[in-house]
Amino acid sequence: MHRGRRGARRRVERARLMSVLQIPAMANAHSHAFHRALRGRTQQGTGSFWTWREQMYDLAARLTPDLYFELARAVYAEMVAGGIGAVGEFHYVHHQADGTPYDDPNEMGRALLAAADEVGIRIRLLDTCYLTAGIGQPPAGVQRRFSDGHAEAWAERVAAFDDPRVGAAIHSVRAVPREQMGTVAALGGPVHVHLSEQPAENEACVAAYGVTPTRVLAEEGVLGPRTTLVHATHLTDADVRLIGDSGAQVCLCPTTERDLADGLGHGGDLRAAGTRICLGSDSHAVVDLFEEMRGVEMHDRLRTGVRGHWSAAALLETATVNGHASLGLQESGVVMIDPASPRTAGTGGDVHAAVFAATAADVTDVVIDGRTVFDGDHARVGRELEAAIEKVWA
Ligand SMILES: [Zn+2]
């Protein structure tokens, strides 16, 4: 009886506190769900983005539709538990290991959609065109799983999806010949592209085409208000202006960019040029959009030696309004944050606490489209991830 009363008191107290720390559900605009199985396994020895990619390819070779479904379901549950109500899934593992399509050529993509449905997260499946290993080089090894051979074949496969949640992505200027980019962008709706994540991509592009990757996208008609450029880390001043004038968004992924030693991006410069910024957890070394929000400001501080580029409200906008706009999705939910956790206690319980102190672990309740999709049980999410990841590596 005594315990029951105390429990009730705690719930009332929690409800009172909850009413002061609530934010809209966030949008994770850039995800590769399967990368989550790499967490903690790529942190030994030295290396670069390119050595990490070899480890990622080992993992990509193991995926089956069933494994992919279970892993994505656990990863989307982790996202929801961190206050994320919508995800942009940049999906390129389309075919069987030797490149042969499955009986339903969209089986892998459908596994991702089904995983999102089970969890209750909104999804934009950014079906990714990935045709070449590098400019002018045929796909090799596991990349054969990614390739449809030609953008026309990609478009045919995507048309067969017949699902309004499917959007388009060009993997990068490395992976799609420039003359085929327009075919991908012609799908309509959001178009996402990895852009200038690494200096080597820029060098290869300049060597092959004589211009930067940003300029190639502009010349091929891919830069526009429907476009989201992921990373945009290594840009020239002219690239920044071109992106600003085009109305394209940029998706920064600060925790991945630091994990992969990509470099400090151009958040502040792009914003000054009129570009809207959204956020993604990309490789899922971390799935915590609170950390991504802070990362935007912190990386600008490291780059410039000056504090205070972004207000808490502006950062929250990147994770909410801008992320949904990038995915062409409506905002749809609310997130309750514990304002008296070890992280948030004493911070004032307002938007500053949410943006500059809270972590995904402080999320207590998430409601999307009127449905409670997370009830505060973070331990359950951990168990599901553990089981799904163990199966992938078995
Ligand atoms: Zn990515």
UniProtKB/TrEMBL annotation:
Keywords: Hydrolase
Gene Ontology terms for molecular function: formimidoylglutamate deiminase activity
InterPro entries per UniProt: Amidohydro-rel, Metal-dep_hydrolase_composite, Metal_Hydrolase, MTA/SAH_deaminase
Residues covered by the Amidohydrolase-related domain: 23-335
Known EC number: 3.5.3.13
Pfam families: Amidohydro_1
The name this protein goes by in its record: Formimidoylglutamate deiminase
Species assigned in the record: Nocardioides humilatus
